[in-house]
Amino acid sequence: MEVGVFYLIEIWYTRAMKIEDTIKKAIILGATGGIGRQLAKELARSLDHLVLVGRDADKLSQVQKELTGSKARLSILTLDMLDQVALEAFVENLDADLLVNCAGLSYFSRGSDLDSASEQDLWQVNYHVPVQLIKQLVKKNQKIHLVQLSSLAALFPHPYLAAYSASKAALQTYTLALQEELKQSDSPIQLGLYILGPVQTAILPPKLVEALGGGRLQMKPEKVAQQLIRFIERGTSYAVIGLRYRLLVWLGRLLPQRWIIRLLARYLRKGLNR
User: Fold this and answer.
1) pLDDT tens digit string along 143-163?
2) pTM, to two decimals
3) Residue extents of the structural domains in the chain
4) Is 216 exposed, middle or buried (0-12, 13-18, 19+ CB in 10 A)?
């Protein structure tokens, strides 16, 4: 009887817990993008300190200005993730309860047409930077909640987004493996991976958005940010954001992968011809 009572109390406490109960300072990488910007608005209302990180100083200042008057003390930091020295210095001096990596890079084209320099930059931002963050934090043995954002492209290869799909699939594989390693070693690092479908952000080129039916089929950044916070509050290690996308993943498991890739190709190819 006592065990049952304590179990119910634990469930209630977990559900009732708010992000500000466990997190005082958060850092957002890619804070000027659609998701990062909206997540900053949500977190600024409840946290004590929020650090906005991005590569464009003017855009960072604009976001900071928009959040003036919020509860959180705001700081901005300019960081180019392609600058290895700057990235290492950033991680070395990292001090926060929560780090959310919203940064991402994609190129919409035939895979064979993507030049080597662009593909290298894509892999750096989408895979090598997140992995480096994890590795250096593990070495520091620092208590932190690290959240990585991924994409449905990690689960279903997207034609005309081949390099993007590959980088996201690699990040998912690495992160899921590391999650188990961290649990086995009782690491203080809490690592979360959240899968996103199409979101109304600038990462997708206009011609691709049109091919996918416009903004009607995309999630709004506000909804994404709110759901992200709920999963962070619960300590969820892996989740697909958005009910419609969770249903898509479920349906995708019932169909042959080749069918799904062929269907995606038919839709995405329309964007090349616009």
Assistant:
1) 899 999 999 999 999 999 999
2) 0.86
3) 15-272
4) exposed
